[in-house]
Amino acid sequence: MAEIRVAALVGSLRDGSYTQPACRHALSVAAEFEAVETDLVDLRTLSLPIFDADVDDVADAAELRSRLRSADSIVLGSPVYHGSYSSALKNALDYCGFDEFEDTTVGLLCVAGGSFPTPTLDHLRSVSRALDAWVVPHQVAIPRARECFEAGEITDAGVRDRVEVLGRRMVEYARIEPDPRTFESTQNVGADGR
Ligand SMILES: Cc1cc2nc3c(=O)[nH]c(=O)nc-3n(C[C@H](O)[C@H](O)[C@H](O)COP(=O)(O)O)c2cc1C
To answer: What is the pTM of this model?
Structure first.
């Protein structure tokens, strides 16, 4: 019986995505711990129309929310798109709120074609804190992704190390005692869906 559940939400829909194998590798490291269950949330397999706050319970929204709600830790993985994170991930996050993220441990990972991936991580950190998630300090930026993967595996030793540390942190900090709510989360008045 699983005692800790670690999920990864993959923000790339691309067939040859690098974000997907990076998230999968982080989960495989988490799964090496005893009583850990993992769940890779592949947005290509879920039907999630562009979010409309008037109809937030459509298609596979309930499945997305339920899978994330049952996770103790969530890796948010995104490609770098225009210096930020992907619309697919943003859309999925907009279907979620405090029920899925409050007091949940979150790890961040991003993958860039170029050499400047860090703003994406900053943006995801802000969003996570607005949802009162507990974001681990260690984060993974993978610049010049084409040079770091081969046949769906991470070939760059430094990148692999960083991804593996993220996988471990997801388990080690899955049950951290929650901090008081962030100021920004108290101002995020629409996110509780109530
Ligand atoms: C719409 C779009 C915008 C992008 N913007 C950036 C960018 O601002 N900086 C960058 O380094 N790479 C950018 N890229 C390249 C992606 O980050 C790169 O292809 C990455 O591998 C995508 O992740 P994936 O392999 O998981 O799909 C962009 C790609 C697309 C399709």
So the answer is: 0.96
Six-digit token pair at 156?
Answer: 């760059």
Q: For ligand 1, say whether the CB of 112 is within 6 Å of any of its atoms.
A: yes
> What are the residue ranges of helices labelled H in 74-188?
87-94, 98-101, 118-130, 157-172, 183-186
Instruction: Tell how far the Cα of 62 is from the centroid of ligand 1, in angstroms.
Output: 29
Per-residue pLDDT at 191: 67
Ligand 1 midpoint to CA 110 (Å): 10
| Ligand 1 mutation target, pool 81, 82, 148, most atoms within 8 A of CB | 81
Instruction: List the structure tokens of 106.
Output: 């979150």
CATH architecture for the domain at 4-186: 3-Layer(aba) Sandwich (3.40)
Q: Specify the residue for token string 């596979």.
A: 60
pLDDT along the chain (194 residues), means of 10: 93 98 98 98 98 94 98 98 98 97 97 94 97 97 97 97 98 91 86 55
How far, CA to CA in Å, does 110 sit from each of 14, 75, 86, 124?
Answer: 14, 10, 10, 9
Could you tell which of 10, 76, 80 is best to mutate to test the pocket of ligand 1, judged by most ligand atoms within 8 Å of the CB?
80
